[in-house]
Write a structure and sequence with these properties.
By secondary structure, this protein is mainly alpha-helical. It has a three-stranded antiparallel beta sheet with strand order 1-2-3, covered by helices on one side. Helix 3 packs antiparallel against helix 4 and helix 4 runs parallel beside helix 6. The N terminus is likely disordered.
């Protein structure tokens, strides 16, 4: 039944189409009415077309407005996104600016403290410069370096005068024709003093102090038959040298490394750093080093003494002479040349070049 309905509808539509295609016959009496109806229909149709056109225009404009609003909405969304990103960037920049501001504040505090310290340093520098200028003026003035130089020359002249008195009191002179056993090289400690035996010493036998020759008889020649007067003369000569060295050191204001205990021909020299016996235990050596060592005295004479100790005493006496020579800028002639070093010391100080040193 359902399959037959479509065929019936199709036939009815065909019949209606044929009826519409067939011309309609209008009577003359109905012509005016029909014409009026057609005119009204035409005017209505035109009005409908006009309204349609208006509606189409309005729809088109509305469509454009909607499209524009949609695009504007999209643009607003994009602008919102950009604004959010800008806000994020501004937030980061704000945080960064706060950090930078804190750093700048700390830097300003540091710079202000440095400026204050620079101001203090500048003030101190200006004061130091003023003091330096005052010192320079005082040095270049009447009581300055020139005055100091004059005083130094006067002091050295005074030292020359005092040492000239010492030279007159204990003259060191050359005497020709002395025996070889009177030379100071006969010391048993000559090889122990650090000077090689092959060096060329000054002939000590040709030098005398106050007319006495410095003679030290070696221990191998010391016997019962040794000339006692010669030993006494040598001890007296060593006492003269010790007294001369003590006077020169006091005039030059030089503290001697090895102090002297004067006693004429029975003088002694002190050593504050004696050699420690290696046979001692470590505890004994520590106890000695921890306490103040007493100076050991060595005799500057041979009578009744060990010749080795006497030779070491003469060696220490020559070290004092070497100290005085180094003080005035002169080299020592050697560790075994006592009288030669004393003569060189007196000659240098009594020379005119000593004033200009």
């Amino acid at each position: 039944m359902e399959s037959k309905k479509p065929t019936v509808n199709v036939q009815e539509e065909k019949q209606k189409g044929q009826e519409d295609q067939e011309p309609k016959v209008i009577e003359w009496e109905d012509y005016e009415q029909e014409l009026a109806r057609l005119c009204s229909l035409t005017s209505a149709l035109e009005e409908a077309k006009r309204k349609k056109n208006n509606l189409e225009q309005k729809l088109h404009s509305l469509t454009q407005v909607e499209a524009e609003s949609l695009s504007q909405s999209n643009e607003l969304d994009e602008m919102n996104e950009k604004l959010e990103s800008r806000k994020l960037v501004m937030g980061n920049m704000s945080m960064h600016s706060k950090v930078v501001e804190e750093k700048v504040r700390k830097e300003e505090e540091r710079l202000s403290s440095e400026i204050r310290s620079l101001l203090v340093a500048g003030t101190a520098l200006s004061e130091a410069r003023k003091r330096m200028q005052d010192s320079h003026r005082s040095l270049t003035g009447e009581k300055g370096y020139v005055h100091l130089n004059k005083l130094q020359k006067l002091l050295r002249l005074r030292q020359q005068y005092m040492l000239s008195q010492v030279s007159l009191l204990y003259p060191v002179k050359f005497v020709i024709g002395r025996a070889p056993e009177q030379e100071l090289e006969s010391f048993t400690s000559s090889t122990k003093s650090g000077v090689p035996s092959g060096s060329k010493p000054v002939d000590q036998g040709s030098l005398t102090i106050a007319g006495l020759n410095l003679t030290v008889i070696p221990s191998t020649k010391m016997s019962f038959f040794t000339d006692k007067k010669e030993v006494q003369r040598s001890s007296t000569a060593l006492g003269y040298v010790a007294h001369a060295v003590s006077l020169i050191a006091s005039y030059l204001q030089v503290p001697l490394r090895y102090p002297l205990r004067l006693g004429g021909s029975r003088s002694y020299i002190c050593d504050y750093a004696p050699a420690i016996d290696h046979s001692m235990s470590s505890s004994d050596s520590n106890s000695i080093s921890s306490t103040s060592l007493k100076p050991v005295e060595f005799p500057l004479f041979l009578e009744g003494q060990d010749s080795t100790r006497a030779a070491y005493a003469v060696f220490l006496l020559n070290k004092d002479l070497e100290q005085l020579l180094n003080f005035i800028g002169v080299k020592s002639l050697g560790p075994r040349h006592v009288l030669a070093n004393l003569k060189e010391l007196l000659r240098t100080i009594l020379s005119s070049e000593y004033i200009e040193m």
